[in-house]
Write a structure and sequence with these properties.
Helices cover about 30% and strands about 25% of the residues. The two termini are about 30 Å apart. It is of the alpha+beta class.
Length: about 190
């Protein structure tokens, strides 16, 4: 899955509970809180394993809703997990170039918003527009670029503290397999920053 990016947006549960859950599973991940009540999570999982983890997370942390997003070169896959079960799984084009693609994306948007119990005015999809920010906005995330990240990409960025993206990742936390949080970047002596 080198050409894709995948992550979770967790709603309705505190960061510390997610960290404990990750530790109980021995699952390293990257976390970024906010905006609002959305917790952005990139576990070291892909594909079906990520879907199974989303079901387990939503089952073991009551009142949580987990949106899993996966971006490939030409499509966006979104699934919503509540109470340990898959509520909906949708795949839409990244750019809706035809009326049929736009109609399919609108129907998918409605199913995802219903599964998330989204309140308020649904964001608008535009023909020849990008579908990622619209679907992520349903979960309270307006930062379109998070959809291009994955655990592997974040691990690589963490090793390069001189990278131009340092400011971009300053609010991110690395969580080890024991559920312990660490600063995203380490200082030059090898100690956590």
């Amino acid at each position: 899955m080198s050409d894709s990016a995948q992550g979770f947006i967790v709603l309705g549960v505190a960061r510390t509970k997610v960290q404990k859950w990750l530790g109980s599973r021995g699952l390293p991940a990257f976390l970024a809180a906010g905006p609002g009540k959305a917790l952005r999570l990139w576990p070291d999982l892909q594909g079906e394993a990520a879907e199974e983890a989303a079901n387990a997370l939503s089952r073991e942390l009551p009142k949580s809703r987990v949106l899993v997003f996966s971006t490939t070169e030409d499509s966006l896959r979104v699934s919503v997990h509540v109470d340990g079960a898959l509520q909906t799984r949708e795949e839409v084009a990244l750019r809706m170039r035809t009326a049929k693609q736009l109609a399919q994306a609108h129907a998918a948007l409605q199913r995802v918003s219903t599964a998330l119990d989204f309140k308020g005015h649904r964001p608008t999809l535009l023909r020849d527009g990008d579908s990622r920010p619209v679907f992520l906005e349903l979960a309270g995330v307006r930062e379109e670029d998070i959809a291009s990240l994955s655990h592997a990409k974040l691990s690589e960025a963490r090793q390069q503290s001189e990278a131009p993206d340092v400011v971009r990742f300053q609010d991110f936390t690395a969580v080890d397999a024991k559920g312990k949080a660490h600063a995203f970047f380490t200082d030059t002596s090898g100690q956590e920053a």
